[in-house]
Amino acid sequence: MLTKLYCCLENVTQMTIDFPQTATDVLDVIANAERSRKFVWTAGRVIKESALTTRLADLSSNERKVVLTHITSIMKGLAAQGILERRGPRQSIRYGDEIGFDYLRTPHR
Predict the structure, then answer these.
(1) Considering the entire predicted model, what is its pTM?
(2) How much of the chain, in percent, has pLDDT values that exceed 70?
(3) How far apart are CA 103 and CA 51, in angstroms?
(4) Which of 38, 105, 48 has the alpha carbon at shortest distance from 71?
(5) How many CB atoms lie within 10 A of CB 108?
(6) CA–CA distance, 101 with 78 (Å, rounded to integer)
(7) What is the 8-class DSSP label of residue 22?
(8) Is the Cβ–Cβ distance between 53 and 59 less than 8 Å?
């Protein structure tokens, strides 16, 4: 059972390696894009601005869900730190209804 779980975790790690992995990675993408214009930030937008849209499209539906959920989780953490602000209604930008965030540039508490 542990071997199967380890194999599954290893596959997830390999599948998501190209995508932003940490809050710093996600914040770098957001800060760079916001230099030229303001965006509503979703996991899909982070992937688009990272130039990884094609890579995401190559994944299976379940793999895409793992990647999008992971990035959304990171963004929720940035919102908890006051770096992003969650928008009320869900955003339908690219990958269905997603949680949208605004970049605040400086943390608000």
Answers:
(1) 0.73
(2) 74
(3) 19
(4) 48
(5) 10
(6) 10
(7) S
(8) no
* 63 burial level (CB within 10 Å; 0-12, 13-18, 19+): middle
Domain covering 2-103 in this structure, CATH number: 1.10.10
The CA distance from 90 to 100, in Å, is: 6
The token pair that represents 49 in the structure block? 């601005």
Distances (CA, A) of 61 to 5, 30, 96: 20, 25, 13
Do the Cβ atoms of 20 and 50 come closer than 8 Å? yes
pLDDT of 30-50, one tens digit each?
888 888 788 888 998 999 888
* C-beta of residue 71 within 8 angstroms of C-beta of residue 79: no
Q: Give me the amino acid identity at 56.
A: L
Q: Which two tokens stand for residue 93?
A: 């930008």
For 52-78, the pLDDT digits (tens) are 888 888 888 888 888 889 999 999 999
Return the domain boundaries, the chain.
Answer: 2-103
